[in-house]
């Protein structure tokens, strides 16, 4: 079934799939933070010691980028899903629930929580997904609701 | 006044400040996408030509990382603001309104839209901000509502 395209009409509320894992190294965490989020508590344990983080933590925007990396990998293993994705228009209710630390191994789950046809664009539907990322202790570190555009079955 | 800390009590709904600009190059856009979001329409114009993007576009997660880069730079110019920031717990209503293209120059505005004391943690308050990013044509490309934790004035 790998070549069969999963159209909007084929998605069911409650559908879920898992993705990952991926491990984030200290070198990667510091390099990302130095480029995009150079707050001291993302750059050194010494600076983090005086904050509520305690030790160095991964930038929250690095965590969302790692979500995308895992998600795209999973999509590329399912060409029928990738073929029908039209990207995301946005994200609701993004929450960083606890710090991600260098050395942590993340994995995630995506669940379809709502779908509706587009009134203005019949070639696509709108799908709301609940994403949860977990660390290696199975603790949730991030939740969010990406709003995806999904191709409808050609008439 | 640069050394004066801007505590939670000093913030007023309607306060705003501008940040940026920053220009994203094609090399940076492709490098970020190759690492974190290797969907074909982020990697080459040829692949983007068959999608609604038309030409290569910047990953939405690269755009949020560029927001953070501009925002941290602006905070570092205002030590009193930086000293009181305790990071963000999340983001509501993130919307990628139109594609960001390699070569685009982005800037942004942050406006305080709501604030409330924390019942469980008297040392901090919760501040909701409306962020808008614009391109060089002054078109909005992204809006979102970061939810920040902010230090309260010591008793």
Automatic annotation (TrEMBL), chains A, B:
<feature type="domain" description="MaoC-like">
    <location>
        <begin position="13"/>
        <end position="132"/>
    </location>
</feature>
<dbReference type="Pfam" id="PF01575">
    <property type="entry name" value="MaoC_dehydratas"/>
</dbReference>
<dbReference type="InterPro" id="IPR002539">
    <property type="entry name" value="MaoC-like_dom"/>
</dbReference>
<protein>
    <submittedName>
        <fullName>Acyl dehydratase</fullName>
    </submittedName>
</protein>
<dbReference type="InterPro" id="IPR029069">
    <property type="entry name" value="HotDog_dom_sf"/>
</dbReference>
<dbReference type="InterPro" id="IPR052342">
    <property type="entry name" value="MCH/BMMD"/>
</dbReference>
